[in-house]
Amino acid sequence: MDAHSRSEFPALEGAGSSSSFLDHVSRNNPALLPFGRTLPAGTMPATPHGTTIVALSFEGGVLMAGDRRATMGSMIANRHIEKVFPADKYSVLGIAGTAGIAIDMVRLFQVELEHYEKIEGTLLSLEGKANRLGAMVRANLPMALQGLSVVPLFAGIETGGPETDQAVGRLFSYDVTGGRYEELEHHSVGSGSVFARGALKKLWHPGLTAQQAVEVAIEALFDASDDDSATGGPDLVRRLWPVVYVVTYDGATRVGDDALATVVQTMVTRRSLERRES
Amino acid sequence: MAQQFYVSPEQVMKDRADFARKGIARGKSVVVASFLGGIALVAENPSPTLHKIGEIYDRIAFAAVGKYNEFESLRQAGVRYADVRGYSYDRVDVTARGLASVYAQSLGTVFTAEQKPFEVELAVAEVGVRQSEDHLFRLNFDGSIADESSFLAMGGKADVVQADLDKHWEAGASLRQVLRWAVSALEAPRVDATRADAAATASGSSDAPTPSLHLGAGSLEVALLDRNASRVRGAHRAFRRLDAAAVAAELGEV
Description:
Chain A is of the alpha+beta class. In chain A, 36% of the residues lie in helices and 24% in strands.
């Protein structure tokens, strides 16, 4: 069995072994995890931070959008960063906070869901996915106390439930202790979230279509970028638009650049014509 | 304590191999075959939940025959290996060759060091960009590994199934075509058996096989590695199962 333990091939464990990739890696290769290390004393230099994410439900699904800016103190660290990701076929997550840890946490979460699906042969329930993400955020708590916090926003639709023809989108927000809270209608996280939420409250209404939901998300992010210096607005020079994902029963799909360009152009034209304080 | 008799190593290995071979031959067969649109994995398996075919990674699938608990533990270990590797390096760095070689090591260790060898035979398939770039590996209970071109059959009367596939298989076939070949190959051992029976009773009526020999969609487990998954469906995972209705439609049974 010596050869076995030396090789990188996992042991042939039978019953009782976990379906969780996080558990497996924590046991066997903890160094691979983005969190779970104790940092020595010292001051952390400025690291890139991701900013605003908005999510809202609409008739038949849920949508999540994030701006493209990462900031490092008062500097713009990156203007192409993507902070909204598909978690699996029926859910998406967006992240605000320390980008380096957050992006690895997203990768870990994606593998976690896929791993479960492959081992068990079925998808995890939406609540189950939300709980796993909460466990990861909680595992990052020691580093959050050192200023390296990650705050995700999770959205998805329940699959495999009763045959309702209308998918119901659900949103989950988290705090740094891993606390998980279900949000209704819409939610936002990150530095510009306060301003985005104001816009969402005024623009969201029941029975939005997917197209209207995209428009609402773009407006909310625009308003956040208007008042929060760490949130990037749509970049008409570089033609950079927010990352927008729509989740319906057909799966999670990214809204194309052309569609977003039209929405942004329409909004910018309308707001310029109004010649008001936005 | 009773004195142990000397048994030559050749005899020990032969006994173990015979034991494993008997176990594998008792089960039903599995066919893995490459076609134009990907790789088809077809198993005779009446259970809709206890799978013999599974997804390992983006472009890699697994098929097995033999004892369920043994190949299931190997499948899960394979998924863990692939996921850890893909997470720590990159998704493209997970290859069937790497997986097959760790399977071979693992099976080899069990064959020599454990109480009893695994009564399993595995196939690891990786779909390529073109049909000529498909990889099929066959892994035996003793850890021996073979690189098969285009198709393989294992389990049950594997030689009969393999011979039947050998007669039909051609490059560039459609999904429908390759499924028909696979099903007819899986039916071949039964057809042979009834022919032999007919010859024994000497009734002289060696006509078409009776319908009971026929394998319907309900008793098949079918999955695909889709060659164009990323281009057509925008998905990095090429593996998908075909349900009984889809299989029946492909086989023209509806």
